[in-house]
């Protein structure tokens, strides 16, 4: 069953899901889980090592299995990894059990935020070498073309470019609280109609 207060944060790598997730959970008074951290904990190794030793397809399976543990939960913020929605099983699990929230960022800003990070295997070269900011931007553009259609199915979207993290958290809190209230009202109205029949 769908729980509007089960919040899944999506968006490209570097959009701020892992940074904003715990702050948002605190602001809403909800629990928090970072899907990548859960996977690393369960596997006993880093995402970099999972990609290098077991491959991306195995990582996508781990994402889908770990997500399953979150279905049915309420008042929880889950920071997803940027590629999880590409797996059909994960995508349908997410949209059928919670609220999808999209942190939108431009490729230029994402490349800037990611150019100094070493823990994003997909933002490296074929042999694990570091890429220039321009090369990272090209990779981002190619991946975004595939991923954006599913990011855009989110019920709530916020822009993260040129915005302080605190402002994004405030905007998200307002929008999510309003969305949950609306869902609750609709549920009450549906139940009242059922009773009248
Ligand atoms: N306005 C902003 N919104 C979100 N992240 C920002 C912003 N400005 C800088 N950052 C930085 O960008 C990075 C985002 O990384 P992270 O939170 O790990 O994103 P994700 O989990 O989506 O990959 C962090 O280092 C964060 O501090
Ligand atoms: O874009 C992706 O496919 C990935 C994004 C990462 O998470 P973030 O979006 O938190 O960086 C992590 O799940 C893994 O490196 C794969
Ligand atoms: Mg993250």
UniProtKB/TrEMBL annotation:
Cofactor: Mg(2+)
Subcellular location: Cytoplasm
HAMAP family: Shikimate_kinase
Residues that, per the record, bind Mg(2+): 18
InterPro entries associated with the record: P-loop_NTPase, Shikimate/glucono_kinase, Shikimate_kinase/TSH1, Shikimate_kinase_CS
A Pfam family recorded for this sequence: SKI
Oligomer and partners: Monomer.
GO molecular function: kinase activity
SUPFAM superfamilies to which the protein is assigned, alphabetical: P-loop containing nucleoside triphosphate hydrolases
EC number: 2.7.1.71
The protein's role, per its UniProt record: Catalyzes the specific phosphorylation of the 3-hydroxyl group of shikimic acid using ATP as a cosubstrate.
Family: Belongs to the shikimate kinase family.
Pathway per the UniProt entry: Metabolic intermediate biosynthesis; chorismate biosynthesis; chorismate from D-erythrose 4-phosphate and phosphoenolpyruvate: step 5/7
Keywords for this protein: Amino-acid biosynthesis, Aromatic amino acid biosynthesis, ATP-binding, Coiled coil, Cytoplasm, Kinase, Magnesium, Metal-binding, Nucleotide-binding, Transferase
Enzyme class: transferase
Binding site for substrate: 36, 60, 82, 147
Manner of cofactor binding, per the entry note: Binds 1 Mg(2+) ion per subunit.
Reactions catalysed, as given in the entry: shikimate + ATP = 3-phosphoshikimate + ADP + H(+)
Organism annotation: Prosthecochloris ethylica
UniProt: ATP binding residues: 14-19, 120
Coiled coil: 162-196
Protein name: Shikimate kinase
Entry keyword annotation includes Magnesium: yes
């Amino acid at each position: 069953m769908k729980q509007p207060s089960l919040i899944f944060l999506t968006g490209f790598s570097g959009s701020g899901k892992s940074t904003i997730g715990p702050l948002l959970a605190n602001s809403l008074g909800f629990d928090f889980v970072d899907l990548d951290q859960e996977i690393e904990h369960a596997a006993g190794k880093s995402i970099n090592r999972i990609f290098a030793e077991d491959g991306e397809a195995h990582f996508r399976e781990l994402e889908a299995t770990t997500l399953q543990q979150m279905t049915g939960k309420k008042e929880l913020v889950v920071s997803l990894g940027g590629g999880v929605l590409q797996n059909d099983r994960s995508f349908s699990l997410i949209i059928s059990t919670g609220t999808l929230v999209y942190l939108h960022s431009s490729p230029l800003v994402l490349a800037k935020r990611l150019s100094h990070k070493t823990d994003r295997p997909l933002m490296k070269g074929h042999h694990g070498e570091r890429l220039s900011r321009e090369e990272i931007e090209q990779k981002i553009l190619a991946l975004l073309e595939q991923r954006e259609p599913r990011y855009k199915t989110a019920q709530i979207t916020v822009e993260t470019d040129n915005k302080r993290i605190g402002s994004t958290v405030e905007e998200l809190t307002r929008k999510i609280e309003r969305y949950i209230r609306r869902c609750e009202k609709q549920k009450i109205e549906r139940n009242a109609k059922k009773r009248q029949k």
